[in-house]
Specification:
Helix content: 55-70%
Largest sheet: 6 strands, parallel
Structural class: mainly alpha
Mean pLDDT: 79
Shape: globular
Distance between the termini: 25 Å
Radius of gyration: 31 Å
Low-confidence stretches: 10-87, 318-326, 871-880
CATH class of the domain at 45-252: Alpha Beta
Number of helices: 38
Number of strands: 9
Length: 880
């Protein structure tokens, strides 16, 4: 492992266990998108039947591995080493994709439901196809709801319209596996292979159902290599509009029988249908017994009109269903009755992604209509539109304070958007409110697209892209992300330069804060590419994105990769500032220039930690570079009070300067800087996770100070050591309380502070408390990661704690068990420099343990074999 600093930043970076330890930097688990087609293999298709269907997702469960129990030896003193959580409720995300119909209204499909059940009993892949509006997705949801007991392992729904099928499958695997863990690799294809292999090899007998909705043959071939081939337990239901796939036999879902159609209408107006049977038949015939339009008519028209009036309205519209594009004609029934405001606003909403639309986004779009630009289309009128659309069954409310169109309705509205020039009311509006457009509807469409992009950018700027979001912030904003992706992907030319940068920054920070570093890197690289095409090689926006990109590399502890963009931002920023002293962007660019210096200085502190144990002279060069950069940044930050986005630059810089002094054992100087940083943050934020960072950093200074007094003979002072350990304990506990409140109990930032708190208790000889905190940290890490070096190190720390625990009869037994678990994990982790450092530590501890416990000899030999070639022959001979 690399040397980790236990320093914390407003942007969390690396960890150091103490100024005197060889400490380890984590191999961070990240995510990534597949940017090119995956290689697919021609699997045997004999187990495939086709039927087309939609489904929903699962909910997470955790089931951590349990340690070997020594209860028979010491029942009273035994502490569970790794909590086990039983999976009680199967994960199922159908609540986020609920059925449109109650079970009682789902008629005429009894036979196909049973057929589908039998097909999935016999085959692992079933495909359903059928025309638009025939009810394929609803059939899937009803089946999953009716037969959810057949899938105790869970049900997971993936919608190809979201265009994120790989990430959705990864999330599904995490939910349906007994342990909610993250794959160690950062590339999405490797992560999916990891989860697929894990599922194939697990001993569970719980069957799961995966529903793939709106999939094309290309989508399916992309995902197919990552779907488990366990025919008995892993069932896949695929819904597609086009069932003519190579080597695939699909089941076609047909329209309802007329008797079922009439029964369906009677559920809404029983007496009307019963008393007007022939008219009901005419309606069903004209609608070709297509479930979607029957449902739409029942919900939208029948509450308002009698059945005779409905029949008359339908006959006056030339509905042709032989071409599925013509299904949109049924929505003309409502379109004709919408006022101009509703028509325009509905088309504006249709520009959104095919995902839930946050109410806040709808309100923000409505607010954008004002009397100066849109004439009579005021925000007050726009706010009435959503309730109208809900009432007319064109959009529905779903969980999460969101609305969602049926995809067919959304397609219809997008079609109407480009056909606005055929609507007399719209043309009159253009002539009245925008005479300069000369009834050019394309200009109006352009204005609407620009408005949509502006609103998305403004919502992103509302504190959503500021550093250190809480879990609540991330949860609230997650529904905006697909719409941001839609804008930067499909409407990028409509974005102003500033909006483009802010949206990519928002996406980058979203992926960063969720631990998906590869995706964050991809977003920043794409942004750099577009901005350079627009503005050339030298522009403040470029320096800002270079800083953001370098920071992700810093988080990933890829220091060499981080150094390059920081240096480029510094050089470019310096040149630009010299050439543009009067620019309105001067101060912001100067702040970004200072950020480059500050973080590059911090990066050199990290490189000092990494190299100081192997090359002290080389490491000191990094320390000297860090000092110069940090002090230069300090001067730049102090020149003017930063705005909200940069408000933590000064305290963060003070933290970095404090760390510089701490690494040189200048404890009082470090304490002074940490206190200044904390005072500034307490003045800015009464209650915020950023305060936890300051408490944690100050605690680390006292912790290292205590080690200094307890481990160096010339300065030994046990009383001062104890005082500093107690100060560290107090501050770590404060940090822990805040982090748990804002991030939840299962967060890696919480684990980090628990780790340091455990080390503090070790220094205070309070071994039981130390063990308790190490175990809490381990449970968190095993929830987030599986085969990860930090998990193995956590186990090694527990082993050490038992190894040196005094007056405890079975301490060696527990120590051996934790060493055994750590070695088991080390054998399955890729060997790196960090890996070698950790195995060396385990080797040394077991060398000590075997002198007191002969039963540790086998573990020592395992560690020796793993260490292998990482030790030279002379060092090996010395140890033996």
């Amino acid at each position: 492992m690399t040397n980790k600093s236990s320093e914390e930043n407003p942007h969390p970076i690396t960890n150091e266990q103490g100024a005197f330890d060889n400490v380890n930097a984590r191999d961070i688990s990240v995510g990534g998108d597949i940017t090119q087609e995956s290689n697919t293999t021609n699997n045997n298709n004999t187990n495939n039947i086709t039927i087309t269907i939609t489904t929903s997702s699962l909910s997470p469960q955790q089931d951590n591995e349990t340690e070997q129990s020594f209860a028979q030896k010491d029942q009273q003193n035994y502490q569970v080493t790794s909590s086990s959580t039983k999976k009680t409720i199967p994960p199922n995300n159908l609540n986020t994709h609920p059925s449109n119909l109650d079970e009682d209204y789902f008629v005429g499909r009894e036979a196909i439901l049973e057929e589908l059940k039998q097909a999935l009993e016999n085959k692992n892949n079933v495909f359903i196809t059928g025309r638009s509006g025939v009810g394929k997705s609803e059939l899937a949801r009803q089946y999953a709801q009716k037969h959810r007991a057949l899938y105790p392992g869970g049900i997971w729904y993936i919608d190809a319209l979201k265009k994120d099928i790989f990430r959705d499958l990864e999330q599904g695997y995490r939910k349906i596996l007994k342990e909610d863990i993250s794959a160690p690799d950062d590339e999405i294809d490797k992560k999916l292979n990891f989860y697929c292999d894990r599922w194939n090899n697990q001993s569970s007998e719980e069957r799961v159902l995966i529903i793939l909705d709106h999939f094309t043959e290309k989508d399916y071939n992309y995902l197919k290599p990552y779907l488990s081939n366990n025919e008995k337990l892993f069932k896949v239901l695929v819904i597609t509009l086009d069932g003519d796939w190579t080597g695939i036999k699909s089941k076609t879902l047909n329209v309802l029988e007329q008797t079922a159609s009439i029964k369906f209408l009677s559920l809404y107006q029983e007496d009307e249908v019963k008393n007007n049977g022939q008219i009901a038949e005419q309606i069903c015939n004209h609608l070709e017994n297509l479930p979607l339009v029957l449902e739409y008519v029942a919900n939208s028209l029948m509450p308002t009109y009698d059945i005779k009036k409905i029949c008359e309205q339908i006959k006056n519209i030339n509905i042709i269903f032989s071409n599925d594009e013509k299904i949109n004609s049924i929505f003309e029934l409502d379109w004709q009755h919408l006022n101009t405001e509703t028509k325009i606003f509905s088309c504006l909403l249709s520009l959104a992604s095919f995902t839930p639309i946050p109410v806040a986004l709808g309100e923000a779009l409505a607010e954008k209509f004002d009397v100066t630009e849109w004439g009579t289309l005021s925000s007050k009128e726009m706010r009435k539109v959503l309730p109208i659309l809900v009432k007319r069954y064109m959009i529905k409310k779903i969980p999460g304070n969101t609305h969602q169109f049926h995809p067919i309705v959304q397609y219809f509205l997008r079609y109407k958007l480009v056909e606005l020039n055929k609507d007399r009311d719209i043309l009159d509006l253009i002539q009245r409110e925008f005479p300069e457009l000369s009834q050019d509807v394309n200009v109006l469409i352009k204005k609407m697209e620009q408005l949509f992009c502006q609103v998305i950018a403004e919502e992103a700027r509302k504190s959503k892209i500021l550093p250190n979001p809480t879990q609540n912030d991330l949860e609230e904003f997650k529904y905006f992300i697909p719409h941001i992706i839609r804008v930067v992907t499909d409407m990028e030319p409509n974005l102003e330069d500033e909006d483009l940068v802010d949206l990519f920054t928002c996406l980058g920070r979203h992926y960063q804060d969720n631990g998906h570093y590869t995706e964050a890197i991809n977003q920043y690289k794409e942004c750099l590419k577009i901005i350079k095409e627009r503005l050339g090689e030298q522009h403040p926006y470029i320096f800002k994105i270079q800083n953001a990109l370098a920071y992700i590399y810093l988080l990933s502890e890829e220091y060499e990769k981080a150094e390059s963009p920081y240096t480029e931002a510094l050089e470019g920023g310096k040149r630009w500032l010299e050439e543009n002293p009067d620019s309105s962007q001067y101060r912001e660019t100067e702040l970004n220039f200072a950020i480059s210096k500050d973080y590059l200085g911090y990066l050199y502190l990290c490189l000092y930690l990494r190299h100081k144990f192997c090359n002290e002279n080389e490491a000191k060069l990094f320390l000297n570079k860090a000092e110069l950069l940090l002090k230069e940044a300090e001067k730049l930050f102090a020149e003017e009070k930063p705005n909200a986005e940069y408000q933590d630059d000064i305290p963060r810089n003070l933290d970095h300067l404090a760390m510089f002094h701490r690494l040189q054992k200048q404890w009082n100087k470090a304490e002074e800087f940490y206190k200044k940083a904390l005072e500034i943050r307490e003045g800015q934020q009464k209650e915020h996770p950023i305060l936890a960072e300051s408490y944690h950093n100050s605690a680390t200074n006292y912790f290292d100070w205590a080690i200094f007094y307890s481990s160096t003979k010339e300065n030994e002072d046990n009383e001062k050591a104890k005082q500093n350990y107690k100060k560290a304990e107090e501050l770590y506990l404060k940090a822990l309380e805040i982090k748990k409140k804002f991030y939840g109990k299962k967060n890696i930032k919480v684990a980090k502070t628990l780790d340091q708190l455990a080390k503090t208790y070790e220094g205070l000889c309070e071994d039981d408390k130390a063990i308790e905190k190490y175990k809490e940290a381990l449970d968190i890490r095993k929830t987030i990661w599986d085969k990860h070096l930090d998990v193995a190190e956590n186990m090694k720390n527990l082993a050490d704690c038992y190894l040196y625990k005094e007056n405890y009869e079975y301490s060696y037994e527990y120590a051996k068990d934790w060493f055994r678990q750590a070695l088991d994990l080390m054998e399955s982790i890729e060997k790196s420099k960090d890996w070698k450092r950790l195995i060396q530590k385990i080797y040394d501890e077991l060398d000590y343990l075997r002198e007191s416990d002969i039963n540790a000899e086998s573990l020592f030999k395992r560690a020796s074999n793993l260490l292998g070639s990482s030790l030279d022959s002379s060092s090996l001979s010395k140890r033996f």
